[in-house]
Each structure stands twice: as structure tokens, then as C-alpha cells.
Amino acid sequence: MTQTNGDFTTARASAPARGPLAFLLDLFSSVWFGITLLVILFIYCSIDGFMLFAYSMLGIDGAPLIRTLPGIELTEFEWFHWWPFNLLCGLIALNLIVVTVRRIPLKTINLGVWMIHTGIIVLIIGSVWYFGTKVEGDAPVFRRQATIRVPGMAEPVGLLIRPGNDLTVGRGTNAYHFSVSQITPEWPILSGDDQGEKAYAVFIDVQTPTQAFTRQLLAGYPQYTEDILTTGQRAKVANATPLVDTDLQISLDFAPTTHFHVVDSQALFIRRLGERDWIERPIKRPVRYYEYIASRDEVWLPGDADIPLRKLDVTIPAVAADDPLRDASVHLTGYLPHAMDRGRWIDDGDQLNPVLSATLTTKNSSPASLELVAFDLRRSTTMNGAVAFRWVQTPEQLESVLASGDSEPAHGPHLLVRIPGTDVKIEHDVNALASSDPSLPFTPVPGSDYSFRVKSMVNDLQIPSGEYAGRTISVAVVEVKSPARSFTRWVADLPEITRDFADQTDPSGHQSTELDDGIEMLFHPGSGANRALMVLAAGPGEIGVHVRLKGSSGTVERHQLKLGQPVALSSGDLTLTVDGLMTHARSERRPDIVPRNQRNKDAKDLLSMAKVEVNDGGVTRSVWLPFNQYAFPNDQFAYPGRMFYDTRQVRLSDGQTYELMFARKRVQLPYPVALDDFELEQHAGGYTGSALQIRDYVSRLRFTDGTGWTEPMKIHVNGPTEFGGYWYFQSQWDPPAPQMSSAGFNYTGLGVGNRNGVHVQLAGCAIAVAGMIYAFYVKPIIKRRRQLAVRAGVPAERANIGSAKRAVRELEGQPV
What would the pLDDT profile of 398-429 be if each residue is shown by its tens digit? Predict the structure, then answer.
């Protein structure tokens, strides 16, 4: 206001133009803007939950959520760490700061609001720190490994202790073979200073170039190491010394784990064939929930399901300087969330290869699917040789195949072994010798350096081509060892086609070697009860498909079969249906997509497959890779029924072969961890559920920084421990599995993760709670006291107000 000639006039200054900064300050000073952000954040956090509720009300199963749509495909953790969520949290924090500074004066009465807002901002900062640096995964830690020092070898080798694991060191006559034959987690020590104690006991079958025995080792008690002879007698009893071979040293040591694998991550691992160390290439844009295929011909489709074509091209760049394919272009070009690598027969081959598929049903069991390959040694029979498939070319061959053979006297299969130039001649019952157990001892041939063991036998095998085409033979698969070499002999009942194969248990695709004339073998497959009970015979044209069934009473029945039409056998006890017959079948392997209604939700990414394309400038190779939960260095870690190991190979223009593996990303532990001991604690009582006892899985871990192992540190369920910046907690264990002859307790599953920013989050929560206490309890007390003070000074204030009013009237010339 300005005064002119005694009059009061008002001069209104023109308002300056408002800039973008002022607009932003006003926007972020708006309470309604903050409320809008909170509503959007609430919708973001709850939209998938609302969709799940709606789907359940409508009875819809398996419908996609927002975070799982193509182009997004985020896990729940990633959804609450995605950039829109982070942006909303940042805007809310900025809104709180601006509103607090501009609209809420920093006074005692407002301290509660300031503390609440400060606590929320600190909580947001701590959460950004926590989730921005969060790494969580898991790792299996095996209990022990055997360190083996073979005479004549400079470096020791390791054998991971798990059921059935084996290792061969050296070649030919200098080869040593080791196999874990038995593991007893709680072996009682019955004598000595440690009598009454229990130890983790491991039995390793040893086959040296000259002898076989079993070595017993106790974890933590190397003084009790001893050998057991093949006769079952202890070496210290038979030879007055505990060890058969003192030059062969085997010890049980820790099996340290150096990495853990990140949950919900994907990576490609590469190495040259023959190398041990994997080089990792993280896949920064994982795909998880949908099939990505460019052509339906590259997979086996689930029935008549219409899988939409979705193209995928994600570059997987090299990040390590020593990446063997650093100069090659590697892309992710396909993905299947639930599939298995399977082979199927296609009837378009260029060679005769009959394959018959059938269904056999009995009254008291579910239907059994049969797939028989006429010219395959192993797959021409099934059900332990009870069912056989034969291919014939003429009606005369058909009649010969369907003949019952009852005129022959029944006798079992036997193997005749001879050493030329000597009187050594032994005959053995093959049924008593045949076994697939790799620990079965070899049978020595008296008066010679040879020993042998029969692995298996196959009856009613037809020769598809060559001089003996159409002949039916039986074969015994025999492993033979001598000081000169080891080989596998396929002994046929037709001596002219007996063959030797160098160190091969399956000669398919391999060339036979020169027959060792130092040992002769003849095989007679037996007859009568040892022949196939059901023989399926098929031929071209009008010959068709026939079956011969020999009943338990010796009766024989024959039927001609038609595709798809069931035939009752054995007075209706059996029903046989021939589902298909291919004459020129060839096998082709493709990923087999599992139908959605048959998928196991708990499998998550364990059954996923990724298609990787490698281009080194000369050639382009594409390969489907099955998912591996852990990037193990070799198949020693492939614990049957527990852990998976599968790699694929590609050969590039440089002539080298490379191994590829699809697995999760790895993170190196700051300190290797080892499992000292594992136990299952059971507490009776205190539980009202279906279990009678509470179980607590307890692992005792040791860590090393290169100077030595720490003292055991105990972790158990809901009882984690921290070491080197990571928290370790119990996530799984190795339960006993009688079907695999495993007593369990061979490894522990550790969850590993960091907890950065947790204290900042707790501090933010504490500040906000303190502010709420102040706002709801302290602030009302302050306001009440001020009100009492105001009421106590009412008369004086009223007088002061009246004096002010009189002064105003005098200035305006009004009567007082």
C-alpha cells in the first residue's frame, strides 16, 4: 500500500511468471498428489492378488497374472523391485520431503509428524539398499570326498562320496577303479580308545591292476582304516596287516563348496571339452512362463495342443576375459518352461528298422506300454526277457519263430570258458553270474591271468543284415580282464559272430577290436522256461503281426493281430493291443512339451529348456539345453534322485568342441564352506499335527580363509548363522532312500543370502513408531496444557482486543 494526498490507495504489483521449478514444488507440496501416489502404489501391490481372487471365484485355473504376461515375465520378488515400483516409492519419498519442509513448520507440536515422515523416508532408503543389493540362493554341501593317491601318479584325485559314485584312474593294464559301495552315517566303533563313538563310514570297492578289495574309512578316525577281501574276511585277520595295498592311499577329507546359485536366475556356462572350469554368461533378461519356439517342428507338441509361435532373440554377451567363445555371437533363441528331452520314432528312415508299440493289460494291474525294436540287442525284449519281438521276411520264417520249442529239454543258460593249449575248461551258470552291479567281483580263470564277469544276456535277437541276416541269436555280455588289457566280449550262441569291444559296455556305434585268442568262450542260452513266454512276430505285406504265448501249464496259443484291435489271451487274463508298427523307423530327439494340465507347479524351472544359438563366424550351431539346478564341474555330483547334471556339446568351425550348460547364476562365497557333521534331531511331544515328533535339521559347518578351518558352527531350522557377510540357513537335507540303497545324510542344503540395509530399515520403523507415539500421546498432552494456559489469560486478551478496535475506528474517522 502507498499513500497519496492523504488517501490510501492500493498498488498491486504484477505477479512474476512461475517457472517449472515452482510448478514442481507446488505439485509435490500437494497432499492430494501424495494420496494419489499411495493409491497407485496400492493398486500396483494388490492387482495380482485381486486377479487371483477373481480367477478363483470364476473357477479359472492357470490364468496369467500381470507380472507373468509376455514381455514382462517377472517373479514376485522382481515385481516388487521393478522400475515402476521403485519410481513410485521415490516419488512418495520426494512428496513427503517437500510437503514436510514447505507445509509443516518445524515446531514442538509437529515433531510427531516430522518423525513419522522421516521414519518412512529412512525405511524407503533402507529398503532400496536392501532390495538393490539383495542376493539369495542355495548350495549343496557334501559331507566328504575321498582323496586318492595312486602309486606312480604325481597328483591325487578326488572321489565325491555319494551312493554309487565311481571313478577310474589310468588306462588299460594300469587302470584303477574305485566305487562307493556302501555309506553308513552312524557306524559304531566297537573297540579301541574310541569304543562307543559313532562315525560316518564309507566303503570303497577297489580294483587295482592285480587285485580287488574293499577299503573301509571312518570320517575323523583315519587310524581305523582297513581293507576287506573279496571273501568278506578282514585283511588284518587274513594277512596280519590292515591294508592290502599300502602304496594306495585313500583318505576322507572335507568337500568344500565355493559358490552358491542365485534363486530365479538364468545363466549359460561354457567351457572347452576336457576342461574343468565353467565360464559364466548371465542371461540378463530371463524368460520363464511361456513357450518360445520359431517352428513347431523343433519340438514334440503335447497332443493336439496349439502352441503359439513366439520368436525370441536375446543376446548373451561374454563378461569374462577368458571366455572361450568371447569372439562368437551367442543368443537365446528358444525357451520351454516345462519340457523333457525325449526321442521318438519316425517312420521315414532309409533302412529297415522294425519298431512295434503295444499295450498289455492284465486283470489286476494297470496297462503296460511296450516298445520293441527288432534289430536292437537290448530293446528287442522287455519284461526281463518275457516278451520278445522278431521280424520275419517269409511265411516260413514266421512259422519257425512261432514254434514253441517244447521238444527241447529245459536247461538254463551257461557259459563255457576255455584257455587254448591248456586243460582249463570251466562251465558257469549265467543266471548265477549275470548282474548289473558294477561292484560284482570278477571270477578268475584257474591257471591263467584272465578273470571275467557276466553283465547281462539277451535272447531271441535277430540279425538284420549281412551274411547271417534273418538268424536268431542270443548273446551274453562278458567283461574280461587280463594284465595286458580289459575288454568287453559279446559272446553269441553263434560263435562266428562273437566280438570283442575295447572298454565298451555298449558297442552301438563303436568298432569291434581283434578277438583275443588267449581265451575262448561259448554261450548256450538254454531253452524251455528260459525262452520268451510271449513272442511277437511281424513281417511285410500279408504276413502282418502275430503273437505266440506260452502259458504256465505249457499250453501254447497263437493269434494274428490287427492294429488297434485288442485280443484276449490266456483265457481272458491278458489283453494285447498292437498300437503301431513302423518298418523304417528312425529315432529323433526333441524337447517334449508337457501338457499344462500335467505340469507340476512345484517343479518351477527344474524342467525348463533353453535353445542357444552359437555363431563363430564360420558355422552356426543351435542346441536345446536342459536346466541344471547347479553348475557342477562333472557328473560326480549327479546324485540320482536328488541332483541333475546334463550338458550338451557343439563343434564349431575351429574344429574344437565346446560344452554348454543352462543353469542358475553363481556367486562365489568369500570363504569356502564344508560340512563337518549332520544330524536329525527329533523331539517328542509338543506338536498336535499329523507328525508325532518335531524334526530339526542340524548342520555343523566349517569355514576356511586359506589358513585353516574354523571350529564347527551349528545351524538348524530357524537358527541361521552369519559368516563373512552372508547368512547361512538350513534349506534341505539328504533323506534316506531305501529304493536307491541310500542311508542318506550325505549332504546338506544351505540357503545363503545377505541382509544389507536391515538395520536402516529397522531404524526407519523405530523412528516412525516413535513419531506415532509422540503424535498420538505426547502431542495431545502439549495441546491440552496450552489450552489451559489460554483459558487462564482470557480477560487480558479481551482487553487488548478492544483497544485495537478503538484505534482502528479513530483512523477511519468513525465515532468511537
Answer: 888 887 544 344 456 788 888 887 877 787 77
Spans of all domains in the chain:
20-103, 141-253, 266-342+589-641, 355-406+530-584, 431-458+471-526, 667-758
CA 214/CA 680 separation, integer angstroms: 29
Order of all β-strands in the sheet with 176-188: 166-169, 176-188, 198-207, 212-218, 226-229
- Residue pLDDT, tens place only, 778-798: 999 988 888 888 888 755 445
What is the rounded distance in angstroms from the CA atom of residue 504 to the CA atom of residue 507?
6
Which three-class secondary structure state does DSSP give residue 109?
helix
- Average pLDDT rounded to a whole number, residues 351-361: 93
In this structure, are residues 146 and 202 in contact, taking their beta carbons and an 8 Å threshold? yes
Three-state helix/strand/coil letters over 396-438: HHHHHHCCCCCCCCCCCCEEEEECCCCCCEEEEEHHHHCCCCC
What angle do the packed helices 794-811 and 779-792 form, to 10 degrees? 70
Q: What does pLDDT average to over the chain? A: 86
295-299 contacts: CB < 8 A, separation 24 or more? 298/334, 298/590, 298/591, 298/611, 298/624, 299/336, 299/339, 299/590, 299/591, 299/592, 299/593
Classify the C-alpha dihedral 60-61-66-71 as positive or negative: negative
What residues contact residue 628 under an 8 Å CB cut-off, 6+ apart? 644, 645, 646, 647, 661, 662, 663
Under a CB-based contact definition with an 8 Å cutoff, are residues 580 and 294 in contact? Answer: no
β 620-628/657-663 pair status: parallel
In sequence order, what are the residues at sequence separation of 6 or more whose Cβ sits closer than 8 angstroms to the Cβ of residue 441? 212, 230, 453
Q: Residue 785: what pLDDT?
A: 87
Please choose, from the candidates 388, 386, 393, the residue with its C-alpha nearest in 3D space to the C-alpha of residue 356: 388
Mapped onto helix, strand or coil, the DSSP state of residue 96 is helix
In whole angstroms, what is the distance from residue 624 CA to residue 71 CA?
22
Burial 360-388 (b: 16+ CB within 10 A, else e): beeeeeeeeebebbbbbbeebbbeebebb
DSSP assignment of 780-794, as one string?
Answer: HHHHHHHHHHHHHTH
pLDDT confidence of 152, banded at 50, 70, 90? Answer: confident
Rounded to 5, what percent of the chain is helix, strand, coil? 25, 35, 40
- Helices within 29-110 (DSSP H only): 31-58, 76-79, 83-103
The three-class DSSP label of residue 499 is strand
3-state secondary structure of 229: strand
Show the cell assigned to 366: 494297470
Longest CA–CA span in the chain (Å) reads 153
d(CA 638, CA 635): 5
Check if the beta carbon of residue 590 is closer than 8 Å to that of residue 293: no
Predicted pLDDT at 231: 85
- 216 forms beta bridges with 203, 226
Side-chain half-sphere CA neighbours of 431 within 13 A: 11
State the CB neighbour count (10 A cutoff) for residue 334: 26
In this predicted structure, the answer to whether residue 475 has a pLDDT above a threshold of 80 is yes
pLDDT digits (tens, 9 = 90+) for 325-340: 999 999 999 999 999 9
